[in-house]
Amino acid sequence: LVVAGYFVPKQGDDYQTVQAASVRLSDRGQTALFKRDVFVHLPKAAQRLKLEETTLTNFESLGGSKIKEAAYMSFSGTIVAARDGGWLTTMYGKLEGDKFFRTLVVKSDKFGKNWDYLSTIAGDEAAEAALKAEGEPKCEGFGEPRMIRLGDGRLFAVMRRGSNNMIYKAWSDDDGKTWSKPTSIGFRGVEPALMMMKSGILAFSTGRPDPIAVRFSLDGGATWTSPTGLTKGFELDDPQKPQGAQKSTCYTGLVEVEPGKLLVVYDHLPFAGGWGLNPADKPEAMNTIYGTFVKVSR
Predict the structure, then answer these.
(1) Do the beta carbons of residue 67 and residue 6 sit within 8 Å?
(2) What predicted TM-score, i.e. pTM, was given to this entire model?
(3) Rounded CA gap, 138 and 268, in Å?
(4) Whether the Cβ atoms of residue 112 and residue 1 lie closer than 8 Å to each other
(5) Where do the H-state alpha helices sit in 47-145?
(6) Rounded Cα gap, residues 226 and 274, in angstroms
(7) pLDDT (tens digit, 9 = 90+) per residue, 118-155?
(8) pLDDT in tens, 238-250
(9) In which region does residue 291 sit, left (phi positive, over 0), alpha (psi from -120 to 50) or beta (all else)?
């Protein structure tokens, strides 16, 4: 089950109950059932996001006309089994009155179609405290979270705070109802990828502005190894360009293809400035998806 899509208000609701899409995959990915049948009940109304005229066109799930406004909130991360038979997942965005992105947890029954707000992992207060603690000039707040269940039953979450900001982490020992105070993980990155390997080793990949790398933890995310870099030759000709140090979004994915063997997936964009189309005068230019195998042992 995949839950995603722009959130729009439920008919007659003022952005506190929002509607999104579900995709249910079967037949080893050969069959996909796409429905706009997911509802999320927020603690208060989400802020409204004005969409550019060219953002969405010909997207059948959204109807025949463009969406001009959506809730400033989105699903982000994997779906985790709750202890009572339901499901947990993370979201981020802004509710009315929020200055920074907040990361929150929502919970559903076993069907995954109706989600209720459960808790906020980090919001404005934590963002202000993190800025002061890190001595950073600015941050986005807490976004692009990933949450997994550790071997001891606790939930562990990591969150982006901006391309040049430290990633933060937090734990929950009551199935997501409350969370520890968010603290720095000690390195920077965007949209972290996180998974528990069969051996009990916790694996983590990210990048930007630092190189794409994978790290490991043996203590449930408290401490991490030095980075194992995965890319070379991704450097920009002009390091001042907004995408930082690589010709890549530095968004990654992780899967354990066999015990002790990871596949880390990432992209390469030869013309990264602005992340637009490759130049018309470079017909040979192509964006590329790469995968690197990493063997891991204790």
Answers:
(1) yes
(2) 0.90
(3) 28
(4) yes
(5) 124-134
(6) 30
(7) 999 999 999 999 999 999 999 999 999 999 999 999 99
(8) 555 555 557 888 8
(9) beta
